[in-house]
Design a protein that fits this description.
Elements: E1 13-17, E2 22-27, E3 37-42, E4 48-56, E5 59-67, H1 70-91, H2 99-106, E6 112-113, H3 116-131, H4 141-146, H5 159-167, E7 174-177, E8 182-185, H6 198-212, E9 218-222, E10 226-230, E11 240-246, E12 249-259, E13 262-268, E14 273-276, E15 279-282, E16 285-286, E17 291-292, E18 296-303, H7 306-319, H8 321-327, E19 333-338, E20 346-347
Antiparallel strand pairs: 1-4, 2-3, 4-5, 5-9, 6-8, 7-8, 9-10, 10-13, 11-12, 13-18, 14-15, 16-17, 18-19, 19-20
């Protein structure tokens, strides 16, 4: 990740870099006797650079912006930060009075009416689940809890716990009523988990706010794993430089990409994991089996929309190379790092 995305913790921070130079420009002034004079004028002003960060939904969101007006950039960054906080109040399953928490708490007892925004997002989640054969499933909440990845660093559950969790899951057990804009669970103990979609959605919404405020050069990063580049930075027509780390060694680079009005999302087994009985278990769950997915180290996707790049990184990780090759849209670029002896990270054809 470029230096412009260094961030602090929990508070909102910003830093400006602003430089201005002056040059003496010869000018012939016709005055009384036609004397030639020279005058100094300011050279074209270099762009202002603003760095900003905000903590929301358990993630650090970093913003790097360029523009000519520092006040405009500051206002845009503040509004984007407020958007992240608003989404936290809607999507967090850690905040008891968030809209999603209300659904998790009440949707089995009775249909819960939700905002148009949350309803549309859940409709999209159901579509992703169908198209991925259930490899993406927002009802994975019970699994995340028994594996200890909800408010924890992970632990090995008993097989009976896994079987029980699977009985309280399944996107087909979520009933969406478009006429009344309600959500209902068909089974008790169900729980929606936004971990597979929240960052990408937040980054996309923050980018929309920035663009609406006149920003045409910027980079937004959600925890370093969901990133969007707006336009290009000064003096780099290729776009925003982003380094994709080697999943086996954070000091090594798997690939370098440049983002220009597109997104990059990565899912890797190094993000959250624990060791038990000599084996690594990551947080990337296969909702069909109840166990962490195996066979892959990381998947990175470049796509026009951050929501798509974040969501599809999980099914490609879970279902593997051949499925990804068959189902990859033409405007996606996919980097697979497979967990095989001697395998290197490779871009799919």
């Amino acid at each position: 990740m470029p230096p412009s995305l260094r961030t602090g913790r929990r508070d909102t921070r910003r830093r400006f870099q602003h430089s201005r130079s002056f040059a003496c420009l010869p000018a012939l002034l016709v005055v009384a006797g036609g004397a030639g004079l020279a005058r100094c004028a300011p050279a074209p002003q270099k762009p202002v650079k603003l760095e900003h960060s905000v903590y929301a939904m358990g993630t650090e969101y970093a913003i790097a912006l360029y523009g000519s007006n520092a006040t405009m950039l500051e206002g845009a960054a503040d509004q984007a930060s407020e958007e992240a906080k608003r989404l936290d109040r809607m999507l967090s399953n850690y905040i008891p009075d968030s809209e999603l928490s209300k659904v998790n708490r009440e949707a089995y007892d009775h249909p819960v009416q939700v905002s148009p925004e949350l309803f549309d997002l859940l409709v999209a989640c159901m579509r992703y689940s169908r198209e991925s054969n259930g490899a993406f499933d927002i009802t994975v909440g019970p699994l995340m809890k028994i594996w200890g990845f909800y408010k924890g660093s992970g632990h090995l559950p008993h097989r009976a716990e896994i079987r029980t969790a699977l009985q309280h899951m399944g996107y087909r057990n979520v009933e969406l009523d478009a006429a009344h804009r309600t959500v209902r669970f068909k089974k008790p103990g169900m729980s929606l988990d936004p971990g597979g979609i929240g960052k990408g959605y937040a980054v996309a919404k923050m980018v929309s706010v920035l663009r609406a405020n006149g920003v045409d050069s910027g980079l937004v990063s959600g925890g370093g794993s969901s990133i969007y580049g707006i336009g290009t930075p000064p003096n780099e027509a290729r776009g925003w430089y982003v380094r994709i780390r080697d999943p086996k060694d954070e000091n090594k680079t798997a690939a370098v990409v440049y983002l220009k009005d597109n997104s990059l999302s990565t899912s890797g087994n190094y993000e959250k994991f624990f060791y038990a009985e000599g084996k690594l278990y990551s947080h990337i769950m296969d909702p069909r089996t109840g166990y962490p997915a195996t066979g892959m180290l990381s998947v990175s996707i470049i796509a026009p929309r951050t929501l798509d790049s974040e969501v599809w990184a999980k099914p490609y990780y879970i279902l593997g190379r051949q499925w990804a090759v068959r189902h990859k849209p033409g405007d996606f670029r996919v980097l697979l790092c497979e967990d095989k002896p001697g395998a290197k990270c490779e871009w799919l054809p």
